[in-house]
Design goal:
By secondary structure, this protein is an alpha+beta fold. The protein has 6 helices and 6 strands. The protein has 2 domains: 102 residues, no CATH class; 42 residues.
Length: 175
Amino acid sequence: YNLKYLENGREKTMELAMTFADFAVTEARFRKHFRKVPRDAWNDNMVQLADFLEMDADEREGKFPFIWAVDRKQHLSRVLVAKPIVESCEERRDFWIMLRALAGAEKTVVEEVDVESKVRAEVVGRITQGLMKLAGGNGEGIADFVVGETVAKTTPVAVAEAPSNNGSGDYMAPW
């Protein structure tokens, strides 16, 4: 979402990721989970909540999540977010990801490299299997491999000899 604020008398806009905390800060029932930070207390250990949610537990050590807000004079301010709200944000983010996955919102695109590697692996597997057949037995493996593969692919299901009418008159048309 876009957050509009005033800085040195000029209106500016900041684009931010929407989290549950951005909603909760507007609700009186969640007020106890937020603390406004004076500008002179801002430091590098403060991390935007959206970025904080992407961090591992080890990376979060010593960091303080905050969200941007505007005061009554439309000046930009940082608001610290308590742990229960951070946990709620994680929970809702996970539900959102699951919902999108169930809906098929993010289709996985099959890359050509992946298909090519699968085909190569299959071909190598077949060649290996054929070589193993050739190596086993007393030479019949070659005949079984070559003849068996070609016969299986070229043999029709049912072969019937067509009667021929060589002028003998014994043949009668089926219609």
